[in-house]
Automatic annotation (TrEMBL):
PANTHER family: NUCLEOSIDE DIPHOSPHATE KINASE, NUCLEOSIDE DIPHOSPHATE KINASE DDB_G0292928-RELATED. It catalyses: a ribonucleoside 5'-diphosphate + ATP = a ribonucleoside 5'-triphosphate + ADP; a 2'-deoxyribonucleoside 5'-diphosphate + ATP = a 2'-deoxyribonucleoside 5'-triphosphate + ADP. Keywords: ATP-binding, Cytoplasm, Kinase, Magnesium, Metal-binding, Nucleotide metabolism, Nucleotide-binding, Phosphoprotein, Transferase. Its main location: cytoplasm. Its EC number is 2.7.4.6. It is found in: Cytoplasm. Major role in the synthesis of nucleoside triphosphates other than ATP. The ATP gamma phosphate is transferred to the NDP beta phosphate via a ping-pong mechanism, using a phosphorylated active-site intermediate. Homotetramer. Belongs to the NDK family. This is Nucleoside diphosphate kinase. Residues 3-140 form the Nucleoside diphosphate kinase-like domain. The keyword Metal-binding applies. ATP binds at K11, F59, R87, T93, R104, N114.
């Protein structure tokens, strides 16, 4: 296993339900360290840029509208195997298919509003972290 970083977003539905602390607990219990974090309310341009790879998909407009509907919590997580570990904690994209005990099984109701985002690979993680955080905003542990 390698030490990795991944980009996580607590989406507007989960922030609205006051679940930031509960979701952070899942990350920390699994050994993922929060090395950068900020609350943001994305503009249409920011959401479209973040999800640019999906711009031809039929759900793109609804996804951008949802992601701009309220504040989100954005964090970089660091740990052994962080990309896969975070995806395992999140569960499947469609909450109806997510394993019991995952964030999406516990906190999401629909595929459109599914509580969390997590990078799907080390390469996309680097790009997504850089989309939201400068190098100076990343704070690895020193103790
Ligand atoms: P992921 O978030 O599990 O990585 P992606 O396929 O990258 O899933 O899709 C990004 C986001 O787009 C999903 O989290 C979900 O909010 C939305 N999405 C994906 N597929 C659909 C769909 O079929 N209908 C509606 N929304 C979708």
């Amino acid at each position: 296993m390698a030490l990795e970083r991944t980009l996580s977003i607590i989406k507007p539905d989960a922030v609205a339900k006051n679940l930031v602390g509960a979701i952070y607990s899942r990350f920390e219990s699994a050994g993922l360290r929060i090395v950068a974090a900020k609350m943001m309310h994305l503009s249409k341009e920011q959401a479209e840029g973040f999800y640019a790879e999906h711009k031809e998909r039929p759900f793109f407009a609804a996804l951008v509208e949802f992601m701009t509907s309220g504040p989100i919590m954005v964090q970089a997580l660091e740990g052994e195997d962080a990309v896969k570990k975070n995806r395992d904690i999140m569960g499947a994209t469609n909450p109806a298919e997510a394993l019991a005990g995952t964030l999406r099984a516990d906190y999401a109701e629909t595929i459109d509003e599914n509580a969390v985002h997590g990078s799907d690979a080390v390469e996309s993680a680097a790009r997504e972290i850089a989309y939201f955080f400068s190098d100076e905003e990343i704070c690895p542990r020193t103790r």
